[in-house]
Write a structure and sequence with these properties.
Subcellular location: Membrane
Strand content: under 5%
Keywords: Membrane, Sugar transport, Symport, Transmembrane, Transmembrane helix, Transport
Protein name: Major facilitator superfamily (MFS) profile domain-containing protein
CATH architecture of one domain: Up-down Bundle
Shape: globular
Largest sheet: 2 strands, antiparallel
Radius of gyration: 24 Å
GO molecular function, one term: symporter activity
Order of helices and strands: EEHHHHHHHHHHHHHHHHHHH
Distance between the termini: 70 Å
Number of strands: 2
Membrane topology: Multi-pass membrane protein
CATH topology of one domain: Growth Hormone, Chain: A
Structural class: mainly alpha
Helix content: over 70%
CATH superfamily of one domain: MFS general substrate transporter like domains
């Protein structure tokens, strides 16, 4: 084995010689900026929805509720369908776009699909930052959601296909790392822009999403498509040349032949979704689906979307709410870095078990705190209190909405 490289071993025991070439590292970093964009979009929404200037312009009803001391319960103040549409439209659009992205990823390649995602991101950012009314704001969020759907379809697949086997787990988690970095970056930006006077801080928060959007677009223009994608589309010679380039060696014939064979077998499969539902595949199908469902049921997406608002409803002041979200994002990034380092050493199963136990313990602790600590006093834990003092409900100002 040459210096600076290693052998990728398949389950069949065939060794594939490969080096960690600069083009692999650069391609993976540039492609993973799709995760950065997704994370920023997730993190920025909660921050801007807690900014008074943003609420006053697009959601005046919510703004008036936040300034009304006669309404008991901060949760009621943010009970607004338009506000919920602002955040959920990204996910709904992403879900719809995924079905189209699966076609482009297969037929047009991973690289072009990432380029399409970058285009959606850029247009969505421009509309959000320049929004003059709610329709323009929601349209921008929908386009960002389309970008998320295309990026989430192509980027992880591209990373897994272009990375050598030995570091494939770590490089694939690079997408998730960029998601967490994007969330943290958004929280930091929101903390800074909330202090800007003049009512345009929220525009800066939404507009800075253009940085990862441009990175993804430029990256999609510079990277090569994966050998798997090229071979899948019948471009064998080009796929072989790219494989030689990204592996940094001329001894790529065994891996190339295996990719060709895998593509041939995949094309022979008729009705893949029907085969997926067969009895022999049900255990794997149930496990894969259940893992994703229960991961969502932990509520982590709601926390990442609404962190500043959630902290505010618990009695934290505006500043305390924003820097509490920063702390949450920082821990998220640190945990992902640990996963990157350990995933190829201890395995996926160990990390999954550890994460499950940790989440269970943390949620039990949170439940105990919420049960014994009055909501209006939780802000004292971080030295902040709600800027709105609550007064008892009066007959002319009911305590509920």
């Amino acid at each position: 084995m040459p210096a600076g490289g290693f052998s990728s071993v398949t389950p069949a025991g065939v060794e594939f010689e490969a080096k960690i070439t600069p083009i692999v590292i650069i391609s993976c970093i540039m492609a993973a900026t799709g995760g950065l964009m997704f994370g920023y979009d997730v993190g920025v929404s909660g921050g801007v929805t807690s900014m008074p200037d943003f609420l006053k312009k697009f959601f005046p009803v919510v703004y008036r509720k936040t300034r009304n001391p006669g309404i008991d319960g901060n949760y009621c103040k943010y009970d607004n369908q338009g506000l919920q549409l602002f955040t959920s439209s990204l996910y709904l659009a992403g879900l719809t776009a995924t079905f189209f992205a699966s076609y482009t990823t297969r037929r047009l390649g991973r690289r072009l699909t990432m380029l399409i995602a970058g285009f959606f991101f850029i247009v969505g950012v421009v509309l959000n930052a320049a929004a003059q009314d709610l329709a323009m704001l929601i349209t921008g969020r929908i386009l960002l959601g389309c970008g998320v759907g295309f990026a989430n379809q192509a980027v992880p697949l591209f990373l897994s296909e272009i990375a050598p086997t030995r570091i494939r787990g770590g490089l694939n988690i690079l997408f998730q790392l960029n998601v967490t970095i994007g969330i943290l970056f958004a929280n930091l930006v929101n903390y800074g822009t909330a202090k800007i006077t003049g009512g345009w801080g929220w525009r800066l928060s939404l507009g800075l999403a253009g940085i990862p959007a441009l990175l993804l677009t430029v990256g999609a223009l510079l990277v090569v498509d994966s050998p798997n994608s090229l071979i899948e589309r019948g471009r064998l010679d080009e796929g072989k040349a790219v494989l030689r380039k990204i592996r940094g060696t001329d001894k790529i014939e065994p891996e190339f032949l295996e990719l060709v064979e895998a593509s041939r077998i995949a094309k022979e499969v008729k009705h893949p979704f029907r085969n997926l539902l067969k009895r022999r595949n049900r255990p794997q199908l149930v496990i894969a689906v259940a893992l994703q469902i229960f991961q969502q049921f932990t509520g982590i997406n709601a926390i990442m979307f609404y962190a500043p608002v959630l902290f505010n409803t618990l009695g934290f002041g505006n500043d305390a709410s924003l820097y509490s979200a920063v702390i949450t994002g920082a821990v998220n990034v640190l945990s992902t870095v640990v996963s990157i380092y350990s995933v190829d050493k201890v395995g996926r199963r160990v990390l999954l078990l550890e994460a499950g136990v940790q989440m269970f313990i943390s949620q039990v602790i949170i439940a105990i705190i919420l049960a014994f600590k009055p909501l209006h006093g939780l802000g004292d834990l971080l030295g902040g209190s709600s800027p709105v003092k609550h007064s008892p409900s009066r007959p002319d100002q009911p305590g509920r909405v």
